[in-house]
Amino acid sequence: MSAAIGTPFGLFIGGREIPSSDGQQITLLNPATNRPLAEAAVGRVADAHHALEVADRAFRESGWAGGDGAQRTKALYRLSRLLEEQAAAFAELESLNMGKPLRESKGDIDFVVRTLEYMAGLADKIEGETIPIPGARFDYTIREPLGVTVHIAPWNYPLLLAVRSVAPALAAGNAVVLKPASLTPLTALRFAQLAHDAGIPDGILNVVVGSGREVGEALITDARCASVSFTGSGEVGRRIAELAAARLIPTVLELGGKSPVIVFPDADLERAARAIATGIFQNSGQMCWAGSRLVVEAGVEAALLEKLRAAAQGLKLGPGIEAGVTMGPLVSKDQMTRVLGFVDEAREAGARIFLGGGRPAAPELQEGNFVEPTVVTDVDPDARLVREEVFGPVLAVHRFESADEALRLANRTRFGLFASLWTRDLATAHGVARQLEAGMVTINEPPMTFPQTPFGGYKESGLGSEQGRDAPLAYTRRKNVIVNVGAAKPKK
Ligand code: NAP
Ligand code: MG
């Protein structure tokens, strides 16, 4: 069967698309049908080394890392404009490859455009300090780019999560090697071509597709790799931290979550229900910060669950690129099997499936990786469904009697990425927000983030933080310089 997208995708190294060193290719599947979508080159260790070599040379010779941040501002801004012009095509490609509804892909691409604009604005504001010291001396600091930074991205927001770490690294003057997830490399490859068109020097942004274990590890363990940024599972995050520790290079790790949503009895239940549905059913729940544990006051549980049922039943499942579809398939058959396994295990242990719990019955959805929006109540707080990241449209529900109990349940997790809470009471809102062990909290809002707000987890959800004004600094090192300015005494 021939692929729907006729032109095969190559690796992107040194400003152009090239085949992999041994000519290997994979066939990517459309997750809505599991039929061939596109052919893409698969890189090997040799390609990882080639990309590092090209990036290293570009870093030293292209002038990108030079003192004039305004040049980088202009190039990144041009890139943001090109992407905005081509946003519709990028959104469609993302939906075809990853499965999510077109409306969500459009939102993702808008976020990428905004990220580029924001990081473009920071590229000429990476400044040193002057520090008073004793004697006839002058002290100043310089922020230098690290060199070649490696970025390993997941498949749930393929372009967004790649550019979120690549853009600040570029703003700071680094050369980048990006390894997208093997399932979803297409938009990153197109994006690298766009960066070339925007005038970013050849070799400054390279994309190597290939297996994480082979190509990812080859990139990190090479002496030319100066730092690694990773978004994905905790298991791989730990492996990357070990490899980075052996080389003493910095990491930014954005890992999983098991985020609580607390609903107090005075909350606006209508808005809360819609936000809870967004927080767990958007992107079919394949979100690091999915609000996957509902912690609701016992007296309003029944009313809230009925509203949640109505919100879930309003969702239209189907292929992401079809008009009107609001919930797409999971990214792969493996992911679907994994998610259904969590639900079956909880059901067998006596939990109650309030909503969904399996694959949808519609005949036209049988070929794709679809899972119904699912809500599970009366579930053991120690069940795997509650403790582990499911990465699917599955909400676990707990009830509480007192605010203390709510906080205890919310914080009862090894993760700490995100939490949200619903109340009209100011003191409860701010008091609980302070005590939640999570890097991000929303009050009376669904999960929400902007390029200018920090994004990062507590506990096992990660290390370091992304987005925000400090983001480029993670891709710099600081040099201190002391100058003797002579013994002349100042005039009286
Ligand atoms: P993963 O293994 O963590 O993959 C994320 C990225 O890391 C991919 O680019 C992957 O490459 C790469 N990778 C894998 N092993 C590597 C290694 N040893 N060294 C360097 N890079 C490596 O995630 P997954 O297997 O796709 O998904 C498994 C589970 O992880 C999901 O079910 C979900 O629970 C969680 N997850 C979380 C997030 C998040 O945003 N927090 C995102 C994705 C997945 P390949 O694609 O070639 O394997
Ligand atoms: Mg994996």
How would you describe what is shown here?
The chain is an alpha/beta fold. The protein folds into 2 domains: 264 residues, Aldehyde Dehydrogenase, Chain A, domain 1; 184 residues, Aldehyde Dehydrogenase, Chain A, domain 2 (3-Layer(aba) Sandwich), CATH 3.40.309.10. The strands form 6 sheets. It has a 7-stranded mixed sheet, sandwiched between helices. Strand 6, helix 5 and strand 7 form a beta-alpha-beta unit. The site of magnesium ion has 2 residues, from loops. NADP nicotinamide-adenine-dinucleotide phosphate binds next to helix 7 and helix 8.
Bound compounds, please?
NADP nicotinamide-adenine-dinucleotide phosphate, magnesium ion
Classify the fold: give the CATH topology of the largest domain.
Aldehyde Dehydrogenase, Chain A, domain 1
Cα radius of gyration in angstroms: 24 Å
Helix-strand makeup class: alpha/beta
Q: Helix segment count?
A: 14
Regions with pLDDT < 50 over 5+ consecutive residues?
none
CATH architecture of the largest domain: 3-Layer(aba) Sandwich
Percentage of residues in DSSP E strands: 15-25%
Helix percent reads: 25-40%
Give the C-level CATH assignment of the largest domain: Alpha Beta
Principal-axis shape equals globular
Q: How many distinct domains?
A: 2
CATH superfamily of the largest domain: Aldehyde Dehydrogenase, Chain A, domain 1
| Distance between the first and last residues' Cα | 88 Å
Question: How do the strands of the widest beta sheet line up side by side?
Answer: 13-14-15-12-11-17-18
- The number of strands is 21
Mean pLDDT: 97
Oligomer: single chain
Main pleated-sheet profile: 7 strands, mixed
